[in-house]
Amino acid sequence: MTDGIRVRLALRHEGFALDVDLALPGRGVSALFGPSGCGKTSCLRAIAGLDRVAGGFVAVDGEVWQDDSRRLFLPPHRRAVGYVFQEPSLFAHLSVQGNLDYGLRRAARPHALDAAGVVAMLGLEALLPREPAALSGGERQRVAIARALLGQPRLLLMDEPLAALDAARKAEILPYLSRLHDSLAIPLLYVSHALDEVAQLADQLVLLGGPHGVHSGPLAPMLARLDLAAAFADDPGVVIETTVGAHDDEDHLSRLDFDGGALFVARRPEALGQHLRYRIHARDVSLALDRPQASSILNVLPARVIAMAATDTPALLLVRLQAGATPLLARISRRSWKALQLAPGSAVWVQIKSAALLDGQNAIHVNTGCAAGGVAGR
Amino acid sequence: MLLTADDLAALWLTLKLAATVTVLLFALGTPLAWWLARSRSRWAHPVAAIVALPLVLPPTVLGFYLLVAFGPHGPVGGITQALGLGLLAFTFPGLVLASMLYSLPFVVQPLRHAFEAIGERPLEVAATLRAGPLDRFFTVVLPLARRGFVTAGVLGFAHTVGEFGVVLMIGGNIPRSTRVLSVQIYDHVEALEYAQAHALAGGLLLFSFVVLLAVYAGQPQRRSF
C-alpha cells in the first residue's frame, strides 16, 4: 500500500479546465497556492467528496476514496476527512462544546486525538460553554479547526481558513496553525492565495493556475525556481531553515546558522539550537563584487550566481544565487547586472537588508521524499 | 351555559380534524418541502405551483373536484370502493383528506423556506464530520428549522380550524361526523341564533389572533456563522 496522498482530477467547468495529478507526502503541510478562481477550492471539495468530479482518483494512505475506473465513490461522510471552510460554519444550534462533540461522537475509534489535547492546543478551554454567536471570527475558526480535528481525520483540508479574517485575527490564529503543523501526525492540505501564510506553514508547495500548469515539490526549492517566479507576483523570495547559533545580548542580536552562512537578526527568544524558518524577499537582497568594507548592512554572504531571469518590470531582473547549499533570490536592476558584468558562475557578495522572521515557533521539518508531478492545465 | 351540546360536539370534531390533519401534513409535507427546497428537477416548479393552488382557488372549486373524485365514478372513489372502504364523501376520513389538500401550502411553504434558509454549508460540514444523510437531517436540519416547524404546525392547524367551503362541499353537515365549527356558526346564523353564533365566532376570532401573534412574535432572527 502506498503512503501519502494520490489525487488525479480533471476539473471541467464552463470555460475552465484543470488537470491535477498529485502525489503528496503522508505527513506535513502541503499548500495549494494560486490566484482566485484557479481551481484550488474545487480540488479540495473533490478530495472531500463534496463535489463529484468524473474520472477522478483519490487515495489517502492506500485507502481509495474515489476511483471512477472502478466506479468507486465514497460519499463525504464515509471518508476520514476533516474540512475547515473559509467561513467558520459552526452549528448555530449547538454550543462550542456541542460543536466539538458532534465530530468526536461520530469519529472512528480508537481516537488518535483526544478532546482535551485539541482544546488545549487551540486555546478553547474558556470558550466551551459559549454559543457561536458570542464568539469572534477568529475564535469561531479555531473552534472549526478543533471540530475538524476531533473527527479523527486521516487527511485535514483547509480552504483559506484565514481569508475571511482581518489582519489582527489572522495574526491571532497563525501561531495555532504553526503549532498544529508541529504536532500533527496526519497530512494537511492548505489552500491559500496568501504567500506569507504558505511560506510560514507549508512543507510542500503545489502551484495551480500558473501559466505553465501545475507544479509541485518541496517548498524551499520551489520558491527559488526562476521559471515559477511569476506565480509569486511581485514578491518572490526564498525561505531558509536556520538554527539559532548564538545570542548577543549587548547588541540585542541573535545569530542564525544555515547551510551557506549565518544571519544576524534582532534578538530571538528561542534557545540555542532551536530551528527557525526565515523568509528572505528578493527585493531585500542586493549584490556586490567586492566585500563591502564600510556599510551599515549587517548580513553579507559570499555566493555564486546560478542564473538570471527577466521580471514583469523591464528594469528589474531576478537573479538566482547559491550560498553553500542554500538557494537565494535577488532582485536587481538590469543596469546593475550589466555594470557588474555578472554572469552565471560569477562570485558575488550578497547583502541582505533585513530578514523577515517567519516562524516564532519551534522548527518544522517534515520534508520527506515526495514524487510530485504536475500535468499542464489547459 | 352558552355552548350547546351540538356546539361542543362541533368544537371537539374541529379539534380532532385539525390535529389529525396537522400530524399527517407534517409526515407528508416535510419530505415534500425538503424536495422542493433542494431539487433542481424541472418538476420542482410545477409541483410547487400545484402545492400553492389552494391559496388562490375558491374552496368551492377544490371541494367540487374532490367531490367528483371521491364519488362512485371518480378515481379516488374507485380505489376506496375496490379496497372495501366505501365512499369518502360526507365522512370524517374524506374531510381529513380534503383538509390536507386545502391546508398543504400552509405547512409546506414555511418548511420549504426554513430548509432553504439553512443552506448547503451546515450539511456539508456535518457530512465531513461523518454524519450520514438521515443523521444530518435529524441533528442539523430539524434543529435549525425548528421555527419553521412551529410556524408550519400552527398555520396548518389554524387554517384547518377555519375552513368552510371545502367542508361544506365535501363533508356535508352531519352532526358529530362532519359538522365542524365554521359550519355550526353558519347554521346558528341561518337560524338567527346570534348569541350562539357570537360565542363561537368570537372564540374563533380570539383563537386566530393569538395564533398569528404567536407566529409573528416567534419569527426567527436570521443568524449564520
Walk me through this protein's architecture.
The complex is a heterodimer of chains A (378) and B (225). Chain A has 378 residues and is α+β, with helices and mostly antiparallel strands. Chain A folds into two domains: 5-210, P-loop containing nucleotide triphosphate hydrolases (Rossmann fold, 3-Layer(aba) Sandwich); 237-357, Beta Barrel (OB fold (Dihydrolipoamide Acetyltransferase, E2P)). Chain A contains eight helices and 21 strands. In chain A, the strands form four sheets. A six-stranded mixed sheet of chain A has the order 7-8-9-3-10-11, sandwiched between helices. In chain A, strands 2-1-4-5-6 form a five-stranded antiparallel sheet, covered by helices on one side. In chain A, strands 14-13-12-15-21 form a five-stranded antiparallel sheet. In chain A, helix 2 (96-106) runs parallel beside helix 4. The radius of gyration of chain A is 22 Å and the shape is globular. Chain B has a single domain, classed as MetI-like (MetI-like fold). In chain B, helix 1 (5-38) runs parallel beside helix 5 (92-118) and helix 2 (44-56) crosses helix 5. In chain B, 76% of the residues lie in helices and 0% in strands. Chain B has 225 residues and is an all-alpha fold. The chains are: A alpha+beta (378), B mainly alpha (225). The A-B interface holds A 48-50, 75-83, 85, 87-93, 102-103, 106-108, 132-133, 135, 140, 147-148, 151 and B 121-122, 124-133, 135-136, 139-140, 143-144, 146, 223-225.
Features:
heterodimer, A: 378 residues, alpha+beta, Rossmann fold, OB fold (Dihydrolipoamide Acetyltransferase, E2P), 2 domains, six-stranded mixed β-sheet, 8 helices, 35% strand, globular, disordered C terminus, B: 225 residues, mainly alpha, MetI-like fold, 0% strand
Layout of SSEs?
The complex is a heterodimer of chains A (378) and B (225).
Chain A: E1 5-13, E2 16-24, E3 29-33, H1 40-48, E4 57-60, E5 63-67, E6 72-73, E7 81-84, H2 96-106, H3 115-121, H4 137-150, E8 155-159, H5 167-183, E9 188-192, H6 195-201, E10 204-210, E11 213-218, H7 219-223, E12 237-248, E13 253-258, E14 261-266, E15 275-281, E16 285-288, E17 299-310, E18 316-323, E19 326-333, H8 334-339, E20 347-352, E21 356-357
Parallel strand pairs in A: 3-9, 3-10, 7-8, 8-9
Antiparallel strand pairs in A: 1-2, 1-4, 4-5, 5-6, 10-11, 12-13, 12-15, 13-14, 15-21, 16-20, 17-18, 17-20, 18-19
Helix pairs in contact in A: 2-4, 4-5
Chain B: H1 5-38, H2 44-56, H3 59-70, H4 75-82, H5 92-118, H6 121-128, H7 133-144, H8 146-161, H9 165-171, H10 181-190, H11 194-217
Helix pairs in contact in B: 1-5, 1-8, 2-5, 3-9, 5-8, 5-9, 6-7, 8-11, 10-11
